[in-house]
């Protein structure tokens, strides 16, 4: 009887040992597979990063060469080269936007800085090679003295219209590329689509104002904004926000860059990503403002209405992977603004 029990026990023990060995072997195989997949994934990411860096630098060098070749060239040649450089720069911006998902924060910063430098160089070359001529007649009247006084103590004004400086603008003079409002308090301000279409819009030093911008501007710059509500139609490229506090903003755009901003709500439609830096108390919700020609303005802007990455916010002051930034939040649905007419 004891021999039978001993034999049974021995067989059971051997089976358990064999089972443990099989599990251990299987675990080793699975662990090896995971390491292999991780290595392959890392290799793919490195390959994508290397490809991006190579392609980005090659295209940037091509644009820089185009800009350099403008020096001393005939006006028609310069115009053609600048148009090509502008197209390539926009394509490079799109390439960067599409590559953000596999770039590190450092690589993203470097590329954005290089692109910003390139855009600045393009603007400077355009201004130097193709300066806009300004024609004006100076009138010797009492208005001249009045204008001098106004220049010494400038009044708040609409940046889209020429200031009254005692000069008469000649028909055919090139209009300013930038429009907007500055140095205003407690005003309701509006721009029509005809006024801002494909232009750069600058809003600066506004306090307790409501601003409605209809149409599709090229870029939107907001600087030194305090306790304002600013609503804007689709911006075809970037929105830049700097030194904004206690405000409500709403706009669609390709990219959002926000600096030094506090306690501000942003109702956003963004087709690439939103970036914040040196900010706190910033909250986001999807863009909900509407007006009769919004669909037409989306078409003009070229933005994809079906693509909205409003929750994909990169905080350049918060690089802790896997931990949400404390500097921005999502506005709860119950707290989102629903009536923009009030």
Automatic annotation (TrEMBL):
The keyword Cytoplasm applies. It holds the Pfam family TBCC. Residues 17-50 have a biased composition (Basic and acidic residues). The lineage of its organism: Eukaryota, Metazoa, Chordata, Craniata, Vertebrata. It comes from Haplochromis burtoni (Burton's mouthbrooder). Supercomplex made of cofactors A to E. Cofactors A and D function by capturing and stabilizing tubulin in a quasi-native conformation. Cofactor E binds to the cofactor D-tubulin complex; interaction with cofactor C then causes the release of tubulin polypeptides that are committed to the native state. One of its GO terms (molecular function) is tubulin binding. This is Tubulin-specific chaperone C. GO terms for biological process: post-chaperonin tubulin folding pathway; tubulin complex assembly.
